[in-house]
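User: quick one
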Amino acid sequence: MKRFMNEPADFVRDMLEGVALANPDTLEYVPEFNLIRRKAGPSDGRVSLIQGSGSGHEPAHAMLVGPGMLDGACPGDVFAAPPLEYVLGATRSLRTPAGVVYIVNNYTGDRMVFEMASEVVRAEGIDVRTVLVDDDVAVKDSTYTVGRRGIAGNFFVIKAMGAAAAAGAPIDEVVRIGEAVNAATRSMGMALTSCSPPAKGAPLFALGESEVELGVGIHGEPGRQRTTLSSADQTVEVLLGAILAEHDVNRGDEVAVMVNGLGATPINELYILYGSAHKQLRERGIQVRRNYVGDYCTSLDMAGVSITVVKLTDEIERLLSEPAQIPIRVF
Amino acid sequence: MKRFMNEPADFVRDMLEGVALANPDTLEYVPEFNLIRRKAGPSDGRVSLIQGSGSGHEPAHAMLVGPGMLDGACPGDVFAAPPLEYVLGATRSLRTPAGVVYIVNNYTGDRMVFEMASEVVRAEGIDVRTVLVDDDVAVKDSTYTVGRRGIAGNFFVIKAMGAAAAAGAPIDEVVRIGEAVNAATRSMGMALTSCSPPAKGAPLFALGESEVELGVGIHGEPGRQRTTLSSADQTVEVLLGAILAEHDVNRGDEVAVMVNGLGATPINELYILYGSAHKQLRERGIQVRRNYVGDYCTSLDMAGVSITVVKLTDEIERLLSEPAQIPIRVF
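Assistant: Done. Structure below.
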């Protein structure tokens, strides 16, 4: 395992510091809580949005902080839920009279810490709510999860809630929107390789020369089966088939589609997959109205992909199209 | 080598089709010439900008087409210069009375085909010019190059020329700006792994468990030396040291810095490197005014990085900050 880092123990800190140094006007880094927060904060008193999963999924979530998106993210170490004090620190730093919403991917460890934090800060008079994300159709229960896992689909939940919060929606409404987008969102992934956590220094699992893990989790959790890599068209057929089998998307519907790289997949391959997905959905009479191709929620240096399909309503489409701004940008 | 594709021979076509399907309102795909062009074209009669290197470097260059950037790109096959007819087709498709400028990375094959094309279209009455990009300080002559190679720094040349062309600058001025930005831009890269061209199906070269290729080319060309991977801080020190040794950047100067992934490097590692670069430049009294962190010019599935430093003048800074739009986007 070769990677660009200093000490493995400093991986997350060095990364967060890099994000802050790259965005001195807009972001603030609070090392004490692994917190990346908007400098401006939710200072206008609107609802505040916080996400704090493990690290190793960048750009999710420390790089999704900005106007119209998250107000802050307080990631734990690589693939580890944030400690309670991080969540408390982040919440106190970003509290507003309108309330705070935690956006939590459905993993037992994350849920537990955010539930504990909720009890503590509620006693401090903060109106705090939680929206759970569980878009991954691959498996029902998993290594770290009861129910479905939350993966790249959380981008859409954050984007829509961020737009609503930025527009001054009250907390009940922001929560309603988050739950509606999560309910309209399904994903599934496939790994070509394992990832190698910095502190471990070795792959979490091994795949053969032409083997893939279908339905892999973003922490390397097992999926549905090990199978042989087929063509891009066939890969998309399998992933879309699994997603649509558990999705209320029908002929005539409009969708948003994300083709998400898991960390080490070149963008040319992602566009090959997008082309397949677009055409296969068209053949099913489903129109792709918005598309997202790139790395959104990764698993360190894993080569692989996940596909996400969001069923669009007028409301969701409108919220997704509102302007927003985050560290990840081209220009 | 596992990757998401259909037939290796269709790799480029499938990717370009995917790009076009993802951008139906703004881009047009002309399969005959591997051409991705702006639908609107340079229809307002301003100078037109075309880039056509080999494929495999995405987002460069087929994904850099849009308002304020390229008018079209007609890439050859993976790592291969475009055939003459592609360049002729692209030029005729995008000609305007104000003229056409080719932005060509300094590789012998690319230079040859664009020189041949220039002769042909000049005879057709098109005012055509060429701006060469040669930002890579690693080696003087290389496998496919006389002089320095052109790598990720070409993003800045395209961006500045695109802004000038969009503002209606005459062709002499657009060319002057391109040459000025190229002269102000220096880069160098490092590979952690080789890349594997789809048609070959195997790595171009081999690196040991902790070995890196310092100064690698974006087609896997050898660099300055094979050495052992050290820390992120030390890696940046070596790359920045080499760049600044051949750059007129001094204490008090302002620069733009790009930390460019070569295809399989996760964004968290790129931000670790960016943090190092920012701090090391600051220690040298050099201020980073603009930063670019992500994949801009890749080498297929190579894990690695290049760093680019642009010395900013008021003019370059202004052109880099103009709005522009390309397929690669987050929202």
